[in-house]
């Protein structure tokens, strides 16, 4: 049987942490930054975890490790 293919888009967007949670970047830091406060822009630059409800779906798309 052939190997399972992982989702290329998911590979680029998510990383699995040591504890098994999934890390992601925040949306909204690409453009239209003039109207956003400095504090908000700074917080958008940080990574965050994928919600528990979505974790299973994201892990299904990632390659096995």
Care to count the β-strands?
3
Please state the CA-atom Rg, rounded to the nearest Å. 15 Å
Q: Tell me the number of helical segments per DSSP (H or I, 4 or more residues long).
A: 3
Low-confidence stretches: none
Q: What is the global morphology?
A: elongated
The fraction of residues assigned to DSSP E strands is 5-15%
| Average pLDDT metric | 95
Q: What are the secondary-structure elements, in order, as H or E?
A: HEEHEH
Order of strands side by side in the largest beta sheet? 1-2-3
End-to-end CA span = 19 Å
Map the helices and strands.
Elements: H1 8-13, E1 15-16, E2 22-25, H2 38-44, E3 47-49, H3 52-61
Antiparallel strand pairs: 1-2, 2-3
Q: Could you walk me through the main structural features you see in this protein, from its secondary elements to its overall organization?
A:
The chain is an alpha+beta fold. It contains three helices and three strands, in the order αββαβα. The protein is elongated, with a radius of gyration of 15 Å.
Brief sketch in words of this structure:
The chain has helices spanning about 10-15, 40-45, 50-60, and strands at about 15, 20-25, 45-50. By secondary structure, it is α+β, with helices and mostly antiparallel strands.
What are its keywords?
65 residues, alpha+beta, 3 strands, 35% helix, elongated
């Amino acid at each position: 049987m052939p190997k399972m293919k992982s989702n290329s888009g998911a590979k680029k967007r998510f990383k699995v942490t040591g504890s098994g949670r999934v890390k992601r970047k925040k949306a909204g830091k690409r453009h239209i930054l003039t109207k956003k406060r400095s504090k908000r822009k700074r917080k958008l630059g940080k990574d965050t975890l994928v919600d528990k409800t979505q974790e299973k779906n994201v892990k299904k798309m990632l390659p096995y490790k």
